[in-house]
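The instructor's notes for this session suggest beginning with a concrete chain rather than abstract definitions. Hand out the sequence below and ask the class to guess, before any prediction is shown, which regions might be ordered.
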Amino acid sequence: STTSSTIEVAGRTDPEARLSINNQEIGVDPSGKFSQEIKLSGDINTIEIAAVSKSGQITKIERTVFLKQK
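After discussion, reveal the predicted structure:
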């Protein structure tokens, strides 16, 4: 959980993969690293990260972030 209204989602994937966070396509650098700031809204936020490989294989990760009201 966090008290900040934004959170940074960062990681690494195959450099040739197409990556999206909450259905928004995100660029990856030549080594496959990515980083994106996500705005949180409400108490409970679900963040879905999906990578589609060059061959079409989809890998999804879903995380829930709780926003503590100040």
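Then share the key points. DSSP finds no helices and six strands in the chain. Residues 17 and 54 are 6 Å apart (CA to CA).
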